[in-house]
Amino acid sequence: MSRVALPSPAGWRPMEAEDLPAVMALSERVHPTFHEGEAMFLDRLRLFPEGSLVLAHADGALAAYAIAYPVHRFAPPPLDTVLGTLPADADALYLHDVAVAPEWRGHGLAEPAIRRLLTLAEPFGAAVLVSVYGTWPFWARFGFARVDDPALAPKLAGYGEGAVFMLRESMKEG
To answer: How many domains is the chain built from?
Structure first.
């Protein structure tokens, strides 16, 4: 029995508009209860292309994608929302999604993209995200901490039961 070669974690590259059908298909597989349309993906790619990444297998199949963009620290946008513009006074980078195809999970493929996004977060002073599906322990490994503030509950409602807002203050080296 032959094994399928894993995509190279170093193979993360900038997302392009041509990737969107595959990104959306992977999003539907990974998040079947959180539909987000093409307009949202195009909006994020247009507004902050450096925060939109993909990892493709050698055969061209999409193994993973990541999307992040500047926001106000405690204001995660509702799902499937077209922003149109980014806040000029953003004080955090929002990790909207880091999605790995189920067949590629458990191989550390997301880590290079997460590290890259955390580097992008440095000028903003923080990175934030909404953890779903009980993944908050995974994010804690990258320095994210749960923010248990009842004022965030209305903002988290659209993310489903058990959604957790998480914050990682930037860690300056030196």
So the answer is: 1
